[in-house]
Amino acid sequence: MSHLDTPKSFLLSLGFLVSVGFAPALETSAHAFGLGGGTSADVKSTQAIRDLYGNFVKAWNKHDVAAMSSRWAIDGDQVEPDGQVAKGRDEVTALLTRQHKGVFKKTTLALNVKTVWMISDSVALVDGTYELSGAELPDGTPIPARKGMLTSVLILEKDTWLIAASRLMVPTVLPYKSRAPASPADAAAPKQP
Hints:
34% helix; alpha+beta; Nuclear Transport Factor 2, Chain: A
């Protein structure tokens, strides 16, 4: 009689085989978390997201609102540094149209994606910085360049990365804090051309 002839031995052996056979499937996939590593899919997604922002900057500098707003998911949103919210691609398009027919009609945007954190295969968190120059008041008075930070959540829909939520922020000095030095992660982040 073999050791597999008893129900208990059979079940223990089956349990061992199942656990060994399925263990790789139960492991969480490694994601890039912004500082390198990750799977080849993460690397490909990170590049696609960086390309999305590169194309967004090109569209901004051409003042091509349709090309800019096409980067948002249908239900994506944008929050401006002053708290103005545009919900949905149509409102984002309307916001960008007003901006580019008004104070931003002569602007130039420079944007640096510092970190792309792959949360999952279809969700990413982006941190970056931007500088917007060339803005003018309606009377032609120049507005100083705006330097800020952005955080966005992107989603993969039908093999295309789209902005689900974008938050712009203009840092301000808080009277109760000294200015913090750049983090080691910021120093190590790849520079975008």
